[in-house]
Amino acid sequence: MKKLFILIFISSGVLGYSQEMTKVDTVAVNLLSKMSTVIGELTSVTFNLETANDKMNDLRENERHFSTHKIQMVGPDKMAVHSKGDSGNKAIWYNGEILTYYSFDENNYVSLEAPDNIIDMVDDINNRFGIDFPGADIFYPSLVDDVLENFEFVKYLGFKTVDEEECFHVMASNKHMTFQIWINNNAMFTPKRFLIIDKENGHKHYQGTFSNWNINPILPESMFNFRPPTSAKLISILAKS
């Protein structure tokens, strides 16, 4: 979750909590560590993700937007994302050198030079162009350290059922933000759902639910290379100022 955490922390001045202010449940930390360790050992993975994201509309009310995403990754430098929802039908291909962003709705695409690994690529492309990568946040190796550094309270809330699956429920909170995650009670400790509540901006919610995990599948390199349709238009985009 590092990208989401840092974006909100910087804007609200949350960085810098001391350890004396932190109340940490070791069971919660162990669960997060197990999940992060398993994810860090994956060589490849595919999964589906359904997201719900609050955005301020013209009436200055939180309007909820929904999307579905199919995500495929091969470590350390291959990624493909296909997203459909209120923000359109679009896809990303990343082959370790070039990232291509394609809009099915507008039939245009842009290709960008990118760093040679997924973690650095996500940071670089998001910082420069504002392109989001749903679900990639959980693959940050610093997840547990980020939670401990930036939240006052970290607590295990017990067993919960999500979509008929038994999960461990963990919550981290401070006065600016709440982060909750439900982790599958299985051998792989895969994440099932996460919820972020931004307390300082109208309690906006960002939620994601994972499904159809496929652990260490064989994925051909060709699927991470973009081949534009004959009629597709190559465009350019400006970096954020």
TrEMBL record:
It comes from Winogradskyella pelagia. Keywords: Signal. InterPro entries: DUF2092, LolA/LolB/LppX. The lineage of its organism: Bacteria, Pseudomonadati, Bacteroidota, Flavobacteriia, Flavobacteriales. The keyword Signal applies. Pfam families: DUF2092. This is DUF2092 domain-containing protein.
